[in-house]
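Sequence only, no structure available. Ideas?
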Amino acid sequence: LAVLVVALPLLEPYPASPRFCQLVCPAGTLEAGVPLVGYDRVSGAFFYTLGALFAWKVFLAAVVIAGAVMISRFFCRAMCPLGAAWGMFNRVSLIAIKVDTKACTLCGFCRRICPVDIAIYETPDSSECIRCLRCAKCPQKAVKVVLRDFGATRESFGLPRKHE
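Reply:
I predicted one. Tokens follow.
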């Protein structure tokens, strides 16, 4: 993330394509590279010479596919720079996940239903959380989705106090 997504774009401000996409991301390989090479081979048009970069990208695509068979959301959890960048903001996001420790029985329901295998009662602001909110289906009603407070008051927004 730091090298391919942050450092290289700063060092090379106008690359032909983002380095992460060019060197790592398997989406282009699977969606365009392999079909194009396959079409050229079938149609008899051999315009492209397969090189080391294509071999590397096919290898990475195979690793990602194999990883996805064994681990839920493998690419998102292990390689995706967008998920890593968004994950850094989970601790300050407007939507927060709160766990009522008195109601939580540690049954593991939240972890079983979570697509990224998070025990939300241990780390409600986990950087791996994708905020799918499935954990809020807790049978004990121990997991709640709330708007984060940030310590703001009605007066700080110029609103009158609520009458109680």
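The first helix runs from residue 2 to 11.
Hope that gets you unstuck.
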